[in-house]
Amino acid sequence: MRDGLREAGFGFKDIAxxxxxxxxxxxxxxxxxxxxxxxxxxxxHRIEADLIHSRYVNLDGLLExxxxxxxxxxxxxxxxxxxxxxxxxxxxxxTPAAPEIRLSGGEKLSSGSFEFEVLWTxxxxxxxxxxxxxxxxxxxSGDHILPDITSHVGLHPQSGENPLGDFIxxxxxxxxxxxxxxxxxxxxxxxxxxxxxxxxxxxxxxxxMAIIKSVSDELKxxxxxxxxxxxxxxxxxxxxxxxxxxxxxxxxxETLAHxxxxxxxxxxxxxxxxxxxxxxxxx
Length: 283
Fold this sequence. Notes:
Layout: H1 2-7, E1 17-19, H2 25-28, H3 31-38, E2 41-45, H4 46-49, H5 52-56, H6 60-72, H7 80-84, E3 101-103, E4 108-111, E5 114-120, E6 129-133, E7 138-142, H8 163-174, E8 181-184, H9 193-214, H10 222-227, E9 230-231, E10 238-239, H11 245-264, E11 269-273, E12 276-280
Parallel strand pairs: 1-2, 2-3, 7-8
Antiparallel strand pairs: 4-5, 5-6, 6-7, 9-10, 11-12
């Protein structure tokens, strides 16, 4: 980190403010260390700020809630302990830090000749934000819009009630902006924002249709549905059985997010049997 700044001609004391798009470890993990070395204030959306303690300091409740949700999603009992703790290895890379500034969306953040508008874009994370520079037509999109892969949008204890619905609404709001270049959280700078959003919306429509087809004649759990879907479409599709442990958990949670949206649209119904929830599109 220090070497990267030095190569760019900067030092930690040149950092005047830190703005985090969301608190996932690959975006938030080094924030505490940067704060210590720079003395800069940290800005985070208020929803994300409220999740820091339960995600990185006292995880017991979150782990219990995650296990309960995976169990209800139909994850086999033998696989449950591994999927429950599949993300714990990331904690070692995070130095938790509380923000001095809690954002809500709509604020203006200035840096030199740039004046960014804070856009609240829930979906990938409930308090995710993007930064938009209207005069220069630049968008710092975090994980909201990525050039080569689809962002993970899953239903889990910290996602909100309908994360995929939130995500699609956020994309449609971003689509209205005049943007020349997008600076994503992963991948290279790109143009053609509206085209990329169109591609993502098409992907989610296709995924919803595949799920409806899966449960059109038979009650199934989210886990069962996830095993029938090809994942990583940008790589040509990977069967569930070939995914790594962490990706299997993400796949189940993404399936749950799709099912939740389909239920709000009246296209899928659910039935609770013992500890499991089953879904059906035959109604």
